[in-house]
Amino acid sequence: MRSPLRPAFAPPPEGAELVGEGVWRVTGGAFPSNAYVCATNTPGEAFVVDPGLDPGKIDKAAQDLGLTVRQVFCTHGHFDHIGGASHFQKAYGAEVFLHHADLKTMKTGNFLLMVLKIDQRIVLPEVTFVDPDLPGPMAGDRTLKFHPVPGHTPGSCFIQYGEQMFTGDSLYAQGVGLSDLPGENHGLLRKSLKALWDQIPAERLIHPGHGPSAAFGDIRANNRRLLEFLADGDAA
Known about the structure:
Helix content: 25-40%
Number of strands: 14
Radius of gyration: 17 Å
Number of helices: 8
Number of domains: 1
Strand content: 25-35%
Largest sheet: 7 strands, mixed
Shape: globular
Distance between the termini: 45 Å
């Protein structure tokens, strides 16, 4: 599908990288993480996935692309993935979506920032909770699908938009996102990934919360640390 943006993609704005069809990655914040500005097929409108601790940088990238952020979708509730959501809610009335099981995780954001000695605090957004058993929210005329992957947090999800998937800290192109933060369960994460492993097409483009994007087939073939993590459960 062609993007509603300027013809066949204008050069990315400063601080953003085009990583998929109508998807730009913006990395930043005191605890650096990937946020994604995603054009919908409604001209001039976009949504953001996982706005972290530098919402101004994300917003500027969207504005430079001629886009207004109308929705925010969060793969999970950690501060570096939801910390900037309230900015877009206040500025544009953007609705913020999160799996209902991550309410507690979201509420621990400022506590974790203190524990990690990061001199920044976040304002929690008003959240619309997602039930993955029901039809997902719409962006433009497309439905987003939330695939539950509990383990990194209780409510972690892969968010599918067409043939692109945003995976937060549950699936990286390189390595494994194990952190031992409160609520993380390595065995459950392994089980969640295995349940989806054979359902994701090799050509699907994976956009993680940290690090580069990659086709799932490449991750499946080349991410040795991930393969070892998945195999650990078989040896137990």
